[in-house]
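User: I want to check something. If I give you two sequences, will you return the structure for each one separately, not as a complex?

Assistant: Yes, each is folded on its own. Here is the first sequence with its structure:
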Amino acid sequence: MVLFTALGTLSVSDGDRAWAPSSPKLRQILALLLSRANHVVTFEAMMEELWDADRPKTALTTAQTYVYQLRKAICREVSPEVMPLTRPSGYLLPLGPEQRFDVQVFQDLAGEGRRLLLEGAYEQASRQLSRALDLWAGEPMADVPCGPLLTAYAVHLEEQRLHALELRIEADLRLGRHRELIGELKSLVTVHPHHEWFHGRLISALTRSGRRSEALQAYRTVRAILSDDLGLDPSQELQELQQAVLTTGSTPARWAV
């Protein structure tokens, strides 16, 4: 089983042996092919990724040489079965049943977790979403020089990770794990200070854990951050949450998970 990884540093492993191209350009091409696995990466897209608007006159020939070098390295270091294939308009990296790509595994697990959450199977949803998130070993393609296409792909992956994290937190809250989540949520609002969903879940978790004064302070904190950084007030949902905590010591129905 050949495993390609991009949720962290880029690597290809076959059994106990892990390998990655030493050349930054070859890592970039491999990452681009993986980002569109089983689909053709056109010559134009490859040149855009490698050089953007500053492509040399020999861009096409140079890109083809890079792919040739990548093929030789994969054949030597991994297996000829996972070499990029030439197509009339570009190149295709085929991934079959004997190859796995950690991004696809993450997406499959996250999708299953979301389905389970919607069905009310909170324990199973939390487990599947945790498995998905555990695949992340750092920033996507952390050791790859990213041009415009891979930069956009990395942003897309980060958004998927955040959404999976939200779903896993939602599942855990529905399981009554409010106290256990407080530390994680405090960390998340520090890393993502403008992410109101995380702030709202922290306020809710503190309230349902009997820590009303801390919940109100958490609201004052997010209000100050949004005002100072963005010139905005908290969303209507956050304002309603704060008012309910202030007047009744509880959370509105939409937050009472």
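And separately, the second sequence with its own structure:
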Amino acid sequence: MVGEFSHGVGALIKGFGLMLRPGVKRYAALPFAINFIVFAAIIWFGAHEFAYAVQWIEAQLPEWLDWLKWLLWVLFGGVALLVVFYCFTFLIYIVGFPFNVFLASRVDRSLNGRSMKGAEESFWRGFGADMGSLVQVLRYQIVWTVIVAVIGLVLLFIPGLNLLVPALWFVFGAWMLALGYSDLALGQRGYRFKSQRQIFDRHRGRVLGFGCATAFATLFPILNLLVMPAAVAGAVWLWQDIPPRSE
């Protein structure tokens, strides 16, 4: 488990180097630009709305719970940042998906000397299959996001357990990020989401390590702008030991 986790963490580090390879880096430039634009929007929106949200929560507390305001402020701030951050991260992933398909294909070609899909295959044919897998991934993520959000909301009002909510969201977000980027990588090898889940079950430590490294890297300014192309490249490297197939 520890070795698998470390392998997943190392994949993101490897991805930063892979995305700068000749023939690959130009395909990483557009995802970088998308990251820059969306993260700028996040900063503006978050700064504008966060104060209103905190004021609303304080207004809902009865007077005898005034002493809890500071703790709820900290907890709400942490949870809100994580929830909004990961929601926007998924938005970035969706917006950048067409370009990330190109990037994953180029990284795969750089590692293997060819694209696993074959150079002769029509891009739109392959892209259509990738989009179908993306829909399955998003459906899975939406269902589990609602479930975890409900659990987190309940825990938020239970003393002691509410301290676990930010950690719960971090681990959950890390897992979802890993699944999203792994879908691109395994899609290059002919696997769709139903088959991918069987692979994830066998390599949970690897998935969690890659997801935690990716989620942690996104918390740092400037570095987070490079995470998406690095994660795409790193995921392709991460699953190189999975033999290609066609479905």
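Because they were folded independently, the notes below concern the second chain alone. Residues 116-126 have pLDDT under 50 and may be disordered. The CA atoms of residues 138 and 180 lie 8 Å apart.
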